[in-house]
Amino acid sequence: MRYYYPDYFNRFTCVGGMECPDSCCHIWQITVDKKTLKKYRKVQGALGRRMREKIDQKTGNIEPHGDENRCEFLNDDNLCDIVLELGEDYLCHTCHTHPRHEEVYYNVRERSLAITCPIACKELLMREEPVVIESDEDNKKDRFDMYFDAPLFRQLLYVRDGMLALAQRRDIYIFKRMSLLLGMAHDIERRIRKRQARSRVFPLHHEFTSVEKDEIKRIVYTYSDVSAYSHMARHIIPEDISVKKAVTDMFFALCTMEPLKDTWIPYIQSIINIRMQMEEEEYTNCQKEFKEEITDIQLEQLLFYFVYLYCCSATYDRMLLAKIKMAVANTIIIRELWFMKWLEDDRVLTEDAQAEMAHWFVREVENSDENLEQWDSLMQRNPRFSLNLLIKVLECI
């Protein structure tokens, strides 16, 4: 088994208690794994009775309660009663590992530190040096019950290495890097579809041909240079757009998803209302001033995080472009959330506010499987996230 993870993955330490600005033990439903559930059934006393009463003994679900949808075992000091009485060894798998996340592929595990955690998010945003993806290996082997497209996964690993290197090209303006990533994903997805069409005719030939592999390598190499930007721009349909309107439309799309926090949709709606009332000139002038408040490095860290997280998941649906659109759109939206927060707070944007806005958005999208699937679907089909429009927005920011 091979494991991939960012270089900061193993250094994370949970703050916990009242020091944590937004506890992970509320808002989303926690499911206790079967192994831990068996341990909980043997716990005696008042805590054991609470466990049997408040945890669904068939599904392992701990139903959240109260206005904040708090975990049943999160006390008034924002500490876990299970840990306080029994120790960390009694935490279920989800609680023990969060915010550490693991994507499962055949004989590969890709680990990340979810920025749904405000502490992990702030540490990433304040980091200056480029992130490095590390790996190690052990003798474990997978037994997959389902078909896994290993040839595609191998190509996506190669492509992702190229994309992550491009995301960190600090000699290229950050929004040009995003455009180049979108162009790279578009051209590579065409080769993936070509190979898929060939596989339907010749079902035993799933491997990429040497010609197809060479084409993918050439695409990665070509888009890794800023000179590809002008060539790509010639293929974009010329049109005048309003960045204010285009990004506001993205906020509208967020309102179609189920909120995890009751204040999320009202907050997004208030942002939409403010943006709609702003004149184009006022918006443009404010954006020019706002550019001094954040650095390309902060946007790079977000972009790198999302590309690393999403890219190889295209193994399961072959929709590479949608995954990179998500990475780019997420970065744009977080930047605009910072912009609106900066306006709201009299042109002041603190590090804590940046982490708050970024982790809140990511939590709303990624802590719900339904929301994440809908977000992915919007990238594939909704004109608000068309390739042409995203690149035009990136040109004008």
Report on the architecture of this protein.
The protein folds into two domains: 25-97, no CATH class; 141-397, no CATH class. Helices cover 55% and strands 7% of the residues. The protein has 17 helices and six strands. The strands form two sheets. Strands 4-5-1-6 form a four-stranded mixed β-sheet, with no helix packed on it. Strands 2-3 form a two-stranded antiparallel ribbon. The longest helix is centred in the middle third of the chain and has 28 residues, at 174-201. The relative contact order is 0.13.
Oligomeric state of the chains in view:
single chain
Q: What fraction, in percent, of the residue positions are helical?
A: 55-70%
Please indicate the count of domains: 2
Total count of helical runs of at least 4 residues: 17
- Record the strand order, biggest sheet: 4-5-1-6
Q: What portion of the residues fall into strands of 2 or more residues?
A: 5-15%
* Mean pLDDT reading: 91
Query: Structural class of the secondary structure composition?
Result: alpha+beta
SSE string, helix = H, strand = E?
A: EEHHEHHEEHEHHHHHHHHHHHH
Using the CA coordinates, give the radius of gyration.
Answer: 22 Å
Major sheet: size, sense and barrel closure? 4 strands, mixed
Roughly how many Å apart are the termini?
42 Å
The total beta strand count reads 6
Q: In terms of per-residue confidence, which ranges show pLDDT below 50 for 5 or more consecutive residues? A: none
Q: Overall 3D geometry?
A: globular
